[in-house]
Specification:
The protein is mostly helical and about 230 residues long. About 80% of the residues lie in helices and about 0% in strands.
Length: about 230
Amino acid sequence: MSLTERLSLFSLLDGVAVCLIILGWAMIGWLIENASSAKPAVSGIVAQYRRDWMEQFVTREPRIFDSAILSTLRQGASFFASASMIAIGGGMALLGNTERLRGVAQDLTLSSAPELVWEVKILLVVLFLANAFLKFVWSHRLFGYCAVVMASVPNDPSDPTALPRARKAGEINITAARSFNRGLRSVYFALGSLAWLLGPVSLIVATFLTVSVLWRREFASHSRTVLLRSDSD
């Protein structure tokens, strides 16, 4: 089957829906990571808390509390990386069992589309999951770098290298969190892209729902309101 014949299996609306979900994924990521100081996203607000944490870390004795927090962050990244890998394996197994894939698809939509159509739809989910896996793995690695830099901070707060190294650890921590958040967004869109199994209209609706959920959590959530409150309140 030629490429033209394969493309003819999908409608124009399918192409629009796929382009829309990819555009939504890129757009919401850009909006969150480039939010203005007048209306910062939750991740941007927490980034400043991460810098403050590292500055407090310099004078805290003992530093067990800080290592426990960092360990929790690494465990979270490790968990999601493992979960993403399992999900990718499930998706690839489904691609290798086209008869079962066709049966599931027909149960959902009563459609008799060729197996290639369902394989492409599952592949879109797998691609989002693969991106999430790579982001979580890199996040885990960066949290490890952060731990090493934190360990190099002198115990004496008056040491001239103490604060600069703590600030370096803070920036690495923020970069690790950014990668973790990107992975989470990819998981959100992987779940949304499952709606394509029901048709292009369902994928378009799922894209708008996914973008709106992410936007609300970053720009209109109760947690954001709490973080923006003055410390004197």
